[in-house]
Each structure stands twice: as structure tokens, then as C-alpha cells.
Amino acid sequence: MLNNEINFRVRYSETDQMGYVYYGNYAQYFEVGRVEWLRKLGISYKTMEDNGIMLPVLDLQIKYLKPAKYDALLTLKTTLIKMPSVKIEFAYEIINQQKELLTTGHTTLVFIDMKRNRPTKAPQLILEKVAPYFLGVRG
Q1: Is 55 in a helix, a strand, or coil?
Q2: 61-78: burial string, b at 16+ Cβ within 10 Å, e else
Q3: Residues 56/110, Cβ–Cβ less than 8 Å
Q4: How far apart are CA 123 and CA 51, in angstroms?
Q5: How far is residue 102 from each of residues 16, 58, 93, 98, measured CA to CA in Å?
Q6: What architecture (CATH level 2) is domain 2-133?
Q7: Contact 120, 111 (CB under 8 A)
Q8: By C-alpha distance, which of 2, 4, 1 is closest to 78?
Q9: Which among 56, 71, 77, 106 could disulfide-bond with 61, CB atoms 3.0 to 4.6 Å apart, if both were Cys?
Q10: At CB < 8 A and 24+ separation, what contacts does 115-118 make?
Q11: What is the distance between the alpha carbons of residues 129 and 139, in angstroms, rounded to a whole number?
């Protein structure tokens, strides 16, 4: 499996009155994880869009195990869980500095041909870059 980790600090504006990260912000954290995962692969959302491909979220699942708190330094691990096709699926883990697992998540996104506004196969460049991680693995 191909994964990427990023570190970030919880900003005050991302928290509620209790100093906990507001639940809606986790979707944004996961998006940052996906963008950086693609960037690590040498691909950007902007380049995909310039080439006529959108990648909207089809499904989002989040499990809140422990609250993330204001000013905490967190690690977000983003993992591609199977070979992309028309869809691409990611798993997420958010861990605090004490190595406690705070949140897990999963997203399914679909590649959309912007001209036709229809689902399309994953771009060949992405397939070529991730294929070595899935050799011999059936999904």
C-alpha cells in the first residue's frame, strides 16, 4: 500500500468551545492528506483539472475515537487502499504526539471527465505510478 504522512498543528479557528477540533474539519484534513499524497506521487489536483479530470468525493466515513485538541501537533497518515479504477479509495489515521490514534476515516472518490461530466478511468499516469505497489495483489 502506498501512503504518505503529514504533520499539522490544530488552529484555534478549527475548534469548538471545548477546545476540541470541530467534527466537520476532519473532511478538510483528509482532503489535505489526499492532495499531499498526490503531490508526493508527482501529480497535482490542478494538473488533473487542467487535463479535464475532476475527483469529487463519493463517500466519506469518519470514526472519532478521541478528540483532537487546540494546539496539538497531529500526524495524518493517508493510505491508498487498492488499485484505482474509475474510483480511488483512501484510508486515514490521525495520531497525536503521544502516539494515540484519535480518528480514522475512509473516502471513495470518482474520476470525472469534465467535458462529458461522466465517470472515467483513472489517469494513466496515476495507474503507472501506483501499479508497482500492487503487483501480485488482487483487489
Answers
A1: coil
A2: ebeeeebbebebebebbb
A3: yes
A4: 10
A5: 17, 24, 8, 10
A6: Roll (3.10)
A7: yes
A8: 4
A9: 106
A10: 115/52
A11: 17
- What value, to the nearest 5°, has the Cα angle with vertex 82 and ends 113 and 90? 75
- Considering the entire predicted model, what is its pTM? 0.92
Grid coordinates representing 36 are 499531499
pLDDT grade, residue 139 (50/70/90)?
A: very low
Nearest to 86 by CA among 113, 66, 67: 113
Residue 51 C-alpha cell reads as 487535463
Q: What is the residue extent of each domain of the chain?
A: 2-133
The string of pLDDT tens digits covering residues 57-68 is: 999 999 999 999
- Mind listing the pLDDT tens digit for each residue in 70-103? 999 999 999 999 999 999 999 999 999 999 999 9
Nearest to 91 by CA among 125, 60, 58: 60
